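Running this now, will post back.
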Amino acid sequence: MYFNPVAQLPSRVTSFLQYSLLVLLSSLCYFFTRRGQFVFDDSVAVVKNVDVTNCNTTWQTLMQHDFWGANLTDKNSHKSFRPLTVLTFQQEVRLFGLDATQMKTTNWMLHTLIGVLLPRFFQVVSWRRRRRFGKQWRMEYWAAVLFVVHPIHTEAVSGIVGRAELLATVGFVLAVMIYGRLLKDRATLVEHVVVLTTVFILTATSVLCKETGITILATCAIIDILKHINLKHPIHTFLSNKPLIIRTSILFTLTCVLIYARLSVQNFASPQFRDKDNIVAFSHGPTKFLSQNYLYCLNLWLLLCPDWLSFDWALESIPLVKSFRDYRVTFIVIFYVFLVALLVRSRHQPRALTGLALMIIPFLPASGIIRVGFVIAERVLYIPSLGFCYLVSYGFTKLYEKLDIRWVRIAIGTGFLLLIITFVLRTVQRSAEWATEHSLFRSGLRVVPNNAKVHYNIAKLATDQGDKATAFKFYHQALDLYPEYEVAHMNLGNLYSDAKDYRRALRHLQKAIKYHEDFHTAWMNLGIVHAALKNHKEALVSYHRAMKTKKHYPNCMFNLGNLYNDMGNHTLALATWNETVRQDPKHVKAWNNMINVYDNANMNEQVLEVTARGLKHLPNNPNLLAARAIALAKLGNFLDAEHIYSDLIARHPDEEKYLQNMGVLYHRWRKLDQAERMYRKALKINPHSEMARNNLSKLLASRQKTSN
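Update: finished.
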């Protein structure tokens, strides 16, 4: 757009100001709202992902796991293979710890970097020669400004898992910029080899960050074709351009190589999504055709008017379009009329067609061609929005150039400025909503009130915060909206179980299993409820069914051990808990239960053996150390017991129980002065400790009796 308020400044100064504005706008949108929590998918992909939190996870392991930490060959894996993205999370944890603000800051920096690269990127796709922006505030620059502030990007920037999108986009932008060297008419053979090799490496790197990177080579090919063909005679000019044919053939071949390599990593197995993840993908016939096309309309609407934004669009957020009589078919018709009109109007305008290509090609992986696990995901529009911003800026520029009337140009410029300001304000608001799960989940109620998953997430968060009244309310609302929501049934059953309402707990847990037969967690929780009701036979069946569904299941094995213990079969209980700690050596409760059984049987040697094994995996665990000290004291090894208690007291000076136990040790050891001192210290921390008071009374009474 040719309004140039800094035309009198030197070009270098002007360029500096223009790039500074991009950084400033990005900062206004995200920098001041980056403080927050891990929200939504961040919890699974980062906080609970051992590949991220265990900084010793090797590259070989990352290459075998999906984005969520599951094995790629697992039938339940989503097959989202993004090891480079996971590696960036891991290295951040290594350097800064598990810090949400730091990770959000990194995302903001990546978004800012992309914004700074875009003016040059848009110059390349417009086939303009490189020049300083100080000479003219060109259309490409305003496209970059629009991209930086567009609210559709909030999920990718403010949601930490959006890092995958950002890293893939960096590779996308750099690859296209480098490929731009081949858009010259006289690129040498050496240039071709170097550029194509570099672009291929960048594409492969981008694919290792996010699957959408696979579209880079096709994008380069389309830009190349549009640059070198005559749109009035496209086929003839393409077939007569041998270098163009060779380049596009190479790009096609390299794309096939990458697709083959990517699929081979997951053994060519498809991810097993469920219908509640994407009801459109599981529909058939006209319903699928109409619903999928309606989603295209909604994606475009989110780019045009990014007010209707939600963290999730699953389940019944968008009802299926089941009939041609559905009023939403009107929007599909309008969408295609608009698209066809745009294509016809732009059929001889390569820059407009390039903008459309930048929108459509990166969107193809999410377009329903292959089955995906989402209905709409705002983050997947991050790369396609490059084309959208380019087209909007191109349209404003054309209007500005064509309407050579001063007040009209002022109106156009003012309108574009107001659009930027509106987008900034909306992005700031939306990024603030992404700061906490409470604000994020509540924001979904406004946009998709019929989405059971929104209600479910509010209930789950309320459960974690101890607000059971809110949890009950929203779990029931989620089930009213989607009665087959098995996870909501399970969690509601767990709430009723905690409230000792086992009748309702059984009903909801059985429904969870009815709707998802292999739901191992629901089977285990059903076993826990049966065990609480002393239905031992049913509990055994439930636990064994859970472990049949999930082979490596230490928590279920632990609960099975508890059941055997309740049944009085201590031998089986001990064997089961031993299997638990074999599967999970850091299962503290299993170690403690074994110790309790041996301690109750006064088998102190076995207590020492169990604690010795446990401390190899849980060094300095206070419960294991205290149990070991008690066993040593019972065996008369007071010196070693004293050493353990001294260490515990030094590390936990405010823990009354260790002072009290030390007092008991000295009492048995007949070191009565030290025992009295420990009891009094314990009472100083907790004056209401009955045990410390009774032990002190016994000590004083025995001392008085001795003196008499």
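The first helix runs from residue 11 to 30. More later if anyone needs it.
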